[in-house]
TrEMBL record:
Residues 59-109 are annotated as: Disordered. Residues 72-96 have a biased composition (Basic and acidic residues). It holds the Pfam family CT398_CC. Gene3D superfamilies: 1.10.287.1490. Residues 97-109 have a biased composition (Polar residues). Residues 216-250 form the C4-type zinc ribbon domain. InterPro entries: CT398_CC_hairpin, Oxidative_Scav/Glycosyltrans, Zf-RING_7. Residues 25-205 form the CT398-like coiled coil hairpin domain. This is C4-type zinc ribbon domain-containing protein. PANTHER family: PHOSPHOLIPASE C-BETA-2-RELATED, SCAVENGER RECEPTOR CLASS A MEMBER 3.
Length: 258
């Protein structure tokens, strides 16, 4: 509750019609505040932020998957090279064996032993090659899955951003219309009264002026006591009053009850 305010405390006078116009200014300011709040809380903004965070995380996962595919591709090439080298050497030795170029029994035995060793080595390397191929196939499938999800996420994000921009455009158009109406409505209100209104509006959560209806201030929703209402009734119609409960400019209406 603010400090009690007495009629006449604010040394201002304004035509009753102008005071009623101030209520119209207040209504438009509230409308502009609501539109500003709507703009700040457009659902697509939060959804866009969520999707961007998801895309950033997915991008990191995709980069890791791509690096793994690259590493496994190099590993596969090395495994293929190793197998091919052993295969080539074994084929050369077998050709020597079959051609009868080996003269001594000792050399023949040594060559046969080397061919057997190369055969085992080739088998081991082929197992390594197969394992790398299987891991590369799995890693490539995972990379493709992440890439597809990233593409899908990008499409969703583009749709959300477009919806956000449409919402912004609609709200901005409403706000521009309200600002024009506010300018026209406030044109007939004196600078002193507007300054007082803006001061009270800043002090009281965006509501600087309120109507007195049925003995109740519509700003704080408090019913004024009979003593204060009697003081209001004794004031000239053009006196600018303040609510003794909340301090807002109090505008008398045909339904004031005084």
């Amino acid at each position: 509750m603010g400090e009690p305010r007495r009629p006449g405390r604010d040394p201002l006078n304004a035509d009753p019609f102008i005071q009623l116009r101030l209520l119209d200014v207040q209504a438009l300011d509230l409308r502009l505040d609501q539109l500003a709040h709507r703009r700040r809380t457009v659902p697509e903004v939060a959804e866009g932020e969520r999707l961007r965070a998801e895309r950033a995380k997915l991008g990191s996962e995709l980069a890791t998957a791509q690096a793994q595919v690259s590493d496994l591709t190099r590993e596969q090439r090395k495994a293929e090279t190793d197998v091919e080298q052993v295969r080539t050497r074994r084929a050369r030795d077998e050709q020597r064996l079959q051609s009868g170029q080996v003269g001594s029994a000792r050399d023949l035995q040594s060559l046969q032993s080397e061919i057997e060793s190369l055969q085992r080595r080739q088998s081991d390397l082929e197992d390594v090659e197969l394992d790398v191929m299987e891991r590369l196939e799995a890693a490539t499938a995972h990379e493709q899955e992440l890439s597809a999800r990233e593409t899908e996420l990008g499409s969703k994000l583009a749709e959300v951003d477009q919806a956000r921009d449409r919402a912004y455009a609609s709200i901005d158009a409403e706000a521009e219309q309200a600002r024009r109406e506010r300018t026209d409505t406030a044109a007939g209100v004196s600078d002193d009264l507007l300054k007082l209104y803006e001061k009270r509006r800043a002090q009281h959560g965006g509501v600087g002026a309120a109507a007195l209806r049925q003995r109740r201030c519509e700003g704080c929703r408090m019913e004024l006591d009979a003593r204060y209402l009697g003081q209001i009734a004794a004031k000239p119609d053009d006196a600018v009053l303040s609510c003794e409960e909340c301090g807002r400019i109090l505008v008398r209406t045909l339904e004031s009850g005084v």
